[in-house]
Amino acid sequence: MRGIYYFLIGILLFYIDTIIGLVIPMHFGKIDVIFVPHLTLMYLLILTIYRSFGVALILAIFFGLITDLYYGSIYGLYMFGYILAVVVMDRFFKIFYKDKV
């Protein structure tokens, strides 16, 4: 049941991330600056730390595919990026923070 909640929270953060990117472009003279917060990536990294690595990896694959299909200039870029970020975060967290409890 928790897995469904992780999935629904991730979907919600994906859409909030998209809305923030569309609503908040800033203009400095003739330069347009668009801030994209990447809430989905931060959520996946938090899941990697505080929940299991397997759940975060499955969600990284799913949300990477969804992001690739939604933004889609180069397919697979976000998926492999999310997977790489989750794996690196898991490895670094195991090395540098030994006492998880």
Sheet having the most strands: 2 strands, antiparallel
Strand order of the largest sheet: 1-2
User: Can you write the helix and strand succession as a string?
Assistant: HEEHHH
Per the principal axes of the C-alpha atoms, what is the gross shape?
globular
Low-confidence stretches: none
Q: Helix segment count?
A: 4
Strand proportion, as a percent range, falls in: 5-15%
**Over all CA atoms, what is the radius of gyration?**
15 Å
What is the overall pLDDT average?
Answer: 87
User: Quick one: how many beta strands?
Assistant: 2
Instruction: Report the helical percentage.
Output: over 70%
User: Kindly, what is the distance between the CA atoms of the first and last residues, rounded to a whole number of angstroms?
Assistant: 23 Å
Describe the structure.
The chain is mostly helical. The chain contains four helices and two strands; from the N terminus they run αββααα. It has helices spanning 2-23, 39-50, 53-71, 77-96, and strands at 25-28, 31-34. Strands 1-2 form a two-stranded antiparallel ribbon. It is globular and about 50 Å long. The mean pLDDT is 87.
Draw up the topology in text.
Layout: H1 2-23, E1 25-28, E2 31-34, H2 39-50, H3 53-71, H4 77-96
Antiparallel strand pairs: 1-2
Helix pairs in contact: 1-2, 1-3, 2-3, 2-4, 3-4
